[in-house]
């Protein structure tokens, strides 16, 4: 017992320190998170099948105050974390009182004056602090076999190693994992909130989550940095909805008030189906947002911005925040936009042959004029061709996407094409009511606000991939955000799921667009989160399975796509151009894929110092990959979830489920954990205190 008490004492008494001289602590000027819990009253008003003007009204706190970001944001490590916390709490009190007097009610139309004042450049402009780098930052050789327990766990106390081993033992029990959410709720009821919270912090929560708010995650961020690892921050509060409530929300928010109109040429995969309305079905490794109302989307925007602020100070221009587009708007709009994109491709294929994205055909406007020649001097055709986006190499887009993202164009008026036989203009999108047009503009405004804030804070934004019926719209909007904001560096990153048959083609197409429109391209490559759901939905609705036939095919797709990106980076280097025009994150827990990326980098002459390839894994998973990479000088990230214990239970449940599915990796991690625990026991290092002298690349 004395031994266990002494081990536990490490957890409570350890001061997480960063040995980097003058290294910084996240402290002043950050807004405190408040958790949003929908009340019964709000939930009751969530129905959106029949909207009234009142239902479109939403109240939002627009923080028009100057965001406090003083030079004291980065204090010397001689200042205690408690001093930082006290300062932040004082600031929070000031901000809360200020914001109460500045609450405005936003109805369907938000005035231009309000929009421009919410996050103006004068409010957001900051001079980022510069890091204090030690004279001789530590670098370790990399064991590409990832079998070194010392390198894997030198950032951990012995208590944390014991806790990790216990967590993985539980994750190895199929019955416990299968009923984990029920068991957590029962434990919460029996133990009460305080005891249950303490239990979770000592086990699952402590292992997989960094802390409850942006103050309490400071030690984790500092310790990660001192061991060469950077954060991708995510406020991981999730609603614990029943299947019935999730289906109800999804169906109501995926159908227009004008009804689910299926015109000629409609594609079934881009229309909601109640059987798959709960998008959590067979999905363990991805978070799901269900639309409630516009006010909730505004709050989600604020949450993402707070994540940006929380990560900006600790990373000196290397931090990342992950967001989902379904958190910012009505899913019906993404469905309709995705269908438009795919119908546009079909229109182009029918007219000129071939297949794929419009720009892959390399047709010019003169080529299109020939296809329409039989229509004579047709005004509709002339007006249509005026708005086609093209360059000297050919047509990029049939529609003016920049206008859709920048100029509040009406969707219903934009997505029309001439019928090649009659010359009459026909819609590729069903008529969208004015209120829904306004909802789309609100969604784009929210995304613009987030990305603009990221650019000002020098933080990267990774827009997560979602289901294939949303993804064409998500990718199209993300590419337009790249075009708009990635002019000097990669601020916006798109996510590509390599379990999809079209992954390589989509990445190639987007790389081509970035090259032709001269913007920096950022991509996160993942295997993907929705495979089982996608297969089941395709089979039920009768459209082609979008998923690769096997795990091996997915691995081949991942490696092929990564190799193409590296090949293009090498061309940039060889031509004396900026290699950072292409930035890739290898987001994988598969050590073979990580090893493949490292070998390919060496093979074609790309070094970690080029800062064009980075690696990412989840907090609490595959530490034996992330930390050795960071300590060897590679750009390595941990995905850092945080939030109140009670509100991240759905996230913890998914982590347990995901670990159950990767037992092979768990076995290796358990073996390395035991090896390191034994080593410390043999060497009398039970009370080892992590102290790193590494600097992230």
Helix content: 40-55%
Radius of gyration: 26 Å
**Oligomeric state of the chains present here:** single chain
Q: How many strand segments?
A: 14
Largest sheet: 8 strands, parallel, barrel
Q: What structural class should be given to the helix and strand makeup?
A: alpha/beta
Mean pLDDT: 81
Apparent shape:
globular
N-to-C CA distance: 43 Å
Low-confidence segments, given as residue ranges, are 1-128
- Order of the strands making up the biggest sheet: 3-4-9-10-11-12-13-14
Individual helix count: 28
Strand content: 5-15%
Overview features:
single chain, two-stranded antiparallel sheet, 697 residues, eight-stranded parallel β-barrel, 14 strands, alpha/beta
Characterization of the model:
This protein is of the alpha/beta class and 697 residues long. The chain has an 8-stranded parallel β-barrel, surrounded by 8 helices. The protein has a two-stranded antiparallel ribbon with strand order 1-2. A two-stranded antiparallel sheet has the order 5-6. Helix 15 (331-352) crosses helix 21 (471-485). The longest helix has 24 residues, at 434-457. The two termini are 43 Å apart. Mean pLDDT is 81; it is low at 1-128.
Secondary structure elements and pairings:
Layout: H1 2-13, H2 40-44, H3 53-56, E1 58-60, H4 81-100, E2 104-106, H5 112-118, H6 121-124, H7 149-153, H8 158-171, H9 174-178, H10 180-202, H11 204-208, H12 218-226, E3 229-235, H13 243-253, H14 294-315, E4 320-323, H15 331-352, H16 365-371, H17 379-386, E5 389-391, E6 394-397, H18 401-406, H19 411-414, E7 416-418, E8 425-427, H20 434-457, E9 460-463, H21 471-485, E10 492-497, H22 503-517, E11 521-526, H23 531-541, H24 551-574, E12 582-587, H25 591-604, E13 613-618, H26 623-631, E14 635-642, H27 649-660, H28 663-683
Parallel strand pairs: 3-4, 3-14, 4-9, 9-10, 10-11, 11-12, 12-13, 13-14
Antiparallel strand pairs: 1-2, 5-6, 7-8
Helix pairs in contact: 8-28, 14-20, 15-21, 22-24, 24-25
């Amino acid at each position: 017992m004395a031994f266990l008490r002494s081990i536990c004492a490490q957890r409570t008494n350890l001061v997480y320190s960063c040995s980097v001289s003058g290294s910084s602590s996240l402290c002043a000027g950050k807004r405190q998170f408040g958790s949003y819990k929908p009340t019964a009253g709000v939930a009751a008003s969530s129905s959106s099948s029949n909207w009234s003007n009142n239902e479109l009204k939403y109240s939002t706190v627009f923080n028009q105050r100057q965001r406090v970001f003083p030079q004291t944001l980065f204090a010397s490590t001689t200042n205690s974390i408690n001093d930082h916390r006290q300062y932040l709490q004082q600031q929070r009190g000031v901000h809360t009182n200020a914001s109460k007097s500045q609450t405005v009610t936003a109805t369907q139309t938000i005035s231009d004056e309000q929009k421009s004042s919410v996050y103006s450049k004068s409010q957001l402009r900051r001079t980022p602090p510069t890091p204090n780098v030690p004279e001789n930052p530590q670098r370790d050789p990399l064991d590409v076999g990832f079998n070194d327990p010392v390198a894997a766990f030198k950032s951990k106390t012995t208590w944390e190693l014991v806790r990790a081993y216990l967590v993985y033992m539980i994750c190895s029990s199929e019955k416990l994992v299968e009923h984990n959410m029920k068991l957590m709720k029962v434990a919460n009821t029996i133990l009460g909130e305080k005891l249950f919270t303490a239990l979770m912090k000592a086990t699952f929560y402590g292992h997989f989550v960094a802390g409850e708010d942006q103050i309490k995650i400071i030690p984790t961020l500092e310790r990660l940095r001192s061991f060469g690892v950077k954060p991708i921050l995510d406020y991981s509060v999730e609603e614990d909805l029943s299947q019935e409530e999730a289906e109800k929300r999804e169906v109501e928010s995926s159908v227009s008030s004008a009804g689910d109109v299926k015109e000629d040429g409609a594609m079934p995969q881009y229309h909601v189906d109640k059987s798959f309305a709960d998008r959590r079905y067979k999905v363990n490794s991805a978070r799901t947002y269900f639309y409630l109302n516009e006010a909730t989307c505004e709050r989600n925007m604020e949450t993402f911005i707070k994540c940006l602020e929380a990560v900006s100070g600790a990373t000196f221009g290397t931090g990342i925040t992950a967001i989902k587009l379904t958190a910012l708007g009505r899913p019906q709009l993404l469905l309709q936009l995705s269908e438009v994109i795919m119908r546009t491709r079909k229109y182009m294929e029918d007219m000129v042959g071939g297949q794929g994205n419009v720009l892959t055909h390399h047709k010019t406007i003169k080529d299109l004029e020939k296809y329409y020649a039989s229509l004579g001097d047709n005004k509709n055709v002339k007006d249509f061709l005026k708005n086609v986006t093209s360059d000297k190499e050919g047509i990029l887009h049939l529609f003016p996407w920049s206008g859709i993202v920048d100029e509040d164009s009406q969707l219903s008026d934009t997505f029309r094409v001439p019928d090649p036989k009659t010359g009459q203009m026909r819609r590729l999108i069903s008529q969208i009511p004015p209120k829904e047009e306004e909802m789309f503009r609100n969604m784009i405004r929210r995304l613009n606000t987030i990305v603009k804030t990221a650019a000002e804070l020098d933080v990267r934004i990774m827009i997560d991939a979602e289901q294939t019926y949303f993804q064409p719209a998500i990718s199209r909007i993300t590419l337009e955000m790249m075009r708009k904001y990635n002019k000097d560096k990669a601020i916006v990153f798109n996510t590509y799921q390599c379990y999809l048959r079209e992954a390589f083609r989509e990445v190639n197409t987007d790389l081509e667009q970035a090259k032709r429109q001269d913007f920096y391209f950022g991509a996160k490559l993942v295997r993907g989160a929705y495979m089982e759901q996608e297969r089941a939905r395709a089979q039920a609705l009768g459209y082609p399975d979008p998923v690769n036939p096997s795990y091996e095919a997915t691995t081949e797709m991942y490696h092929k796509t990564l190799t193409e990106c590296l090949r293009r980076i090498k061309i940039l280097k060889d031509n004396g151009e900026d290699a950072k025009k292409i930035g890739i994150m290898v987001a994988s827990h598969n050590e073979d894929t990580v090893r493949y990326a490292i070998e390919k980098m060496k093979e074609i002459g790309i070094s970690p110092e080029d800062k064009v390839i980075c690696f990412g894994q989840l907090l609490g998973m595959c530490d034996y990959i992330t930390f050795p990479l960071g300590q060897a000088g590679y750009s390595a990230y941990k995905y850092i979830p945080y939030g109140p214990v009670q509100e991240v239970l759905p996230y913890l449940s998914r982590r347990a489920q995901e670990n159950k599915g990767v037992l092979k990796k768990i076995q290796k991690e358990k073996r390395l954990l035991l090896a390191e625990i034994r080593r410390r026991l043999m060497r009398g290092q039970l009370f080892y205190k992590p102290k790193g002298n590494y600097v992230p690349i």
